[in-house]
Amino acid sequence: QVWQIRLDMHLLNHDGNITDAASIAGIVALCHFRRPDVSVQGEEVTVYTPEERDPVPLSIHHMPICVSFAFFHQGTYLLVDPTEREERVMDGLLVIAMNKHHEICTIQSSGVVMLVQDQILRCSKITAVKVAEITELIQKALENDQKARKEGGKFGFAESIPNQRITAFKMESAAVDTNDVEEQAGEIIAKADPPAEVFANPVLHTPGTAQIGEGIESSWGDLEESEKEEAAEEEGDTEAAAFECEKVETEDTSTMRGTKNDEPIVLSDSEEEEVVILEPQELPRKTR
Amino acid sequence: PLPPGDTSVLAGLYGPAEAKVSKELPDRAALEVLLRPKVGLPGVMERSREQLLRQTCEAVVLGVLHPRTAITLVLQVLSDAGSLLSCCLNAACMALLDAGLPLTTLFCGVTCALQPDGTILLDPTARQEQEARAILTFAIARSERKVLMANTKGSCSVEEMQQCLAAAQRAADTIFQFYRDSVRRRYSKS
């Protein structure tokens, strides 16, 4: 049995170089994450909830950070951390992922530009400088968050949204005057129509099928009637058949009306001659 | 016990833009809402919330002014500390407002939690929502404080629902004032 870790990244705004941003976000999220504590005794594995034991961080060996370089004019011009406009018109892209120990983890080159060795070396030196800065920022942010959590201050994404910019506007929780709400509600109820009568007793046809309230009266009886009438006319039968049908119909509906206020009843007669009701996990049985 | 966090939802509105032929409506704009949860892929809960939001927005957006176009509203949940649906409603309205879409009225979302002893809590936290007997979310329009959408989880009596509704209508005034202040602030400095 192993732990499975899932990292969801949501891109909120794309203004260029999402690779770098995503790599920083990803590695910080993994460093920040805490998993439930586990103790293993032989074959027995106990997983503790966060309430029982403090969750433990993942073991992160090092923090690789990506830095992207955009090339223009066959390698003459080099831009670090391109914006969206720059990305659209660049000739080539070089991505170097490095950790603070100056170990290169990834190099990716794409585009129509051919790179010389000393260009790549220059880029890796720039990368080392940037990664050192970014790693320090990350450490500071993680420490601040840990301190805030321990001291009981506010933390989380909402707190990190800058408050002083024009596009962000926060309001402290406002008190709402709800003093005469009850009176107002009472007035509304008094003026409103009473709600429709509630049928609390469902009618059970069989276990598994129930009927609440009356549906529209089935007009199948009419169909049968008219069919039978036509058939009678054609075949020359008497009208007795049609009358019988009608009588059966009214009988059924009257039983329904009479018993709707009683305990849930089981309807054992129905208008159709043969009704097959499928029971869950039972063979279908016929009811008349 | 952890201190209460904030519920935040990021809304992005795109449109009225050209619609795919399969999705376009001949006489009005086709409104689509996408709700992305903070963790994981969108599931059934998100789909049902998307429909709620879509129908609420369709009631206020004057779609007939832009036929055969598509209006897409994308909501990303950034953090959830209770009252998420009303937060989505508020974000949706502000997005519609900020994009300059023609609307018949503004609307806001208010959540009420009905506690087992009968007290009404407005904008409950996640903990309060769990302990509540019923949670009611209302979308309330600005004109005459009419109800655009009501969503209930749990059971409550008719009187209690009317009380929650009246309380929500009061709270709506505060939220509409917040809309005015935000918009004023946004457009006051260049």
Automatic annotation (TrEMBL), chain A:
Q: What stretches pass through the bilayer?
A: none
- MF terms per GO, please? mRNA 3'-UTR AU-rich region binding
Q: Which domain of life is it from?
A: Eukaryota
Keyword hit for rRNA processing: yes
Pfam families cross-referenced by the UniProt entry:
RNase_PH, RNase_PH_C
Q: Where is the composition biased (Acidic residues)?
A: 222-238
User: GO biological process: any one?
Assistant: U4 snRNA 3'-end processing
Q: GO CC terms for this protein? A: cytoplasmic exosome (RNase complex); nuclear exosome (RNase complex)
Q: Where is this region: Disordered?
A: 206-288
Main location (coarse class): cytoplasm
Subcellular location per the Swiss-Prot or TrEMBL entry: Cytoplasm; Nucleus
Which InterPro entries does the record cross-reference, listed alphabetically? ExoRNase_PH_dom1, ExoRNase_PH_dom2, ExoRNase_PH_dom2_sf, Exosome_comp_Rrp42_subfam, PNPase/RNase_PH_dom_sf, Ribosomal_Su5_D2-typ_SF
**Cited SUPFAM superfamilies:** Ribonuclease PH domain 2-like (SSF55666), Ribosomal protein S5 domain 2-like (SSF54211)
Keyword terms of this UniProt record? Cytoplasm, rRNA processing
* UniProt domain Exoribonuclease phosphorolytic: residue ranges: 2-36, 62-126
Query: What family does this chain come from, according to its entry?
Result: Belongs to the RNase PH family.
Among PANTHER family, the record links this protein to: EXOSOME COMPLEX COMPONENT RRP45 (PTHR11097:SF14), EXOSOME COMPLEX EXONUCLEASE RIBOSOMAL RNA PROCESSING PROTEIN (PTHR11097)
Q: What is this protein called?
A: EXOS9 protein
Organism of this sequence: Oreocharis arfaki (tit berrypecker)
Q: Identify the coding gene.
A: Exosc9
UniProtKB/TrEMBL annotation, chain B:
Which cellular compartments is it found in? Cytoplasm; Nucleus, Nucleolus
Tell me what organism the protein belongs to.
Oreocharis arfaki
Which residue positions does the secretion signal occupy?
none
- Transmembrane among keywords: no
Outline the subunit composition.
Homodimer. Component of the RNA exosome core complex (Exo-9), composed of EXOSC1, EXOSC2, EXOSC3, EXOSC4, EXOSC5, EXOSC6, EXOSC7, EXOSC8 and EXOSC9; within the complex interacts with EXOSC3, EXOSC8, and EXOSC9. The catalytically inactive RNA exosome core complex (Exo-9) associates with the catalytic subunit EXOSC10/RRP6. Exo-9 may associate with DIS3 to form the nucleolar exosome complex, or DIS3L to form the cytoplasmic exosome complex.
Cellular component GO terms, alphabetically?
cytoplasmic exosome (RNase complex); nuclear exosome (RNase complex); nucleolus
Single GO molecular-function term?
Answer: DNA binding
Similarity comment: family membership? Belongs to the RNase PH family.
Q: Which GO terms describe its biological process?
A: nuclear mRNA surveillance; poly(A)-dependent snoRNA 3'-end processing; rRNA catabolic process; rRNA processing; U4 snRNA 3'-end processing
Q: What is its main location?
A: cytoplasm
SUPFAM superfamilies reported in the protein's UniProt record: Ribonuclease PH domain 2-like, Ribosomal protein S5 domain 2-like
What Pfam families does the record point to? RNase_PH, RNase_PH_C
Is the keyword Phosphoprotein in the record? yes
- Domain Exoribonuclease phosphorolytic stretches: 5-102, 106-170
The residue stretches assigned to a coiled coil in this entry are: none
Q: Which UniProt keywords apply?
A: Cytoplasm, DNA-binding, Exosome, Nucleus, Phosphoprotein, rRNA processing
Q: What is this protein called?
A: Exosome complex component RRP46
